[in-house]
Amino acid sequence: MTNPLNTPAEQSSSANGDSKGSSDGPKRWTVYMPALFHPEAIKYARTKFNLLQPGEGLTQEECLAQADGLRTSFFAHHLTTFFLPNLVKPYLAYMVTVMRVGKLPESQLNETAAPRLRIIARNGTGVDMIHKETCLKRGIVVTNQPGGNAQAVAELALTLILTLLRRVVEVNQRLRSGERVPSISVLAPGLYGKVVGLVGMGDIAYELAKLLVHGFNCKIIIYSPTSPPTKWTTSCPSSPSSAIPHKRCPTLAQLLPQIDVLSLHCPLIPETKHLISTRQLALFGPSAVVVNTARGGIVDESALLLALQRGQIAGAGIDVWESEPPTLATSDTCRELMGRRDVVALPHLGGSTDEVTRVGCMNAVDICWDYLEGGAPRNRVY
Length: 382
Description:
alpha/beta, Rossmann fold, 2 domains, four-stranded mixed sheet
């Protein structure tokens, strides 16, 4: 389900002496990479490309000017973009984008803004932040890395669930304020043996389900209308050994009253926009919690805040937001959610362990290199 740690990037950086990818001699391609990227992936990129970065004698504006005056924006310094300026001769000019997080709307992908864009390599699974219609119209290749961060995101989802069900944020804040907190006054439901609802049956949901079933004896109920009925069963033709005890629900309305925890693992598409809103939150039990490590926008944040204020649900773990990065100034709703003791708020760091980020960034470099060298783009989405 996950990428092996012995990646093509690591193999190629040590196993062969191909002058095209070595650190010695002239490089075939020149690229511009704004921070932030994993430092080892930056070193690896230098063995394959002539790498331009801000602070190395060039301002960002000067780097962009060498990229045919391309004008684009970078989201919270987490969107990492490669530009091949047209001054590199005799090779054709290309622009290549490698994304960690952020958004690429039509205004940054059109012919005027990015005339040489050929490939977008996503360091992760979801591609909903990339304007699909523009890419299809222009023939821009979009790739991802399915399953690469599944274990890391599942680990964080479990962390959020445990933090909520053991009232960690509340107790921590009360202690820090100087309050004496007797343990008998903060009894918590805990996770062992609870009923967990999952929306979606992708790699992350699978890894989380394994942790919940085998580690905490949880019962799993799933709403995933696009998944075949044999998935996660011994009848699954592709992976019969991946069976996990679970029950399927045909509708979300049937699932929600039964669960102690709801964990979201579906993509953000028109059908899942505000999938969890006022009507759905009213179906939760008052001791139930919701965790979102999938995409901001699947949960209606205004409806969530109101449900918490009314005591309709017990808590929420939020790693992804409708507007990112989340800050106290993002919106009144965001500020109020982050200030609550029954909310665990994180800034979209589900897959951001050191090892997962390193491997994903290095794989992204390899995907771009292979494509520029005439190879087929790996993990092409469209």
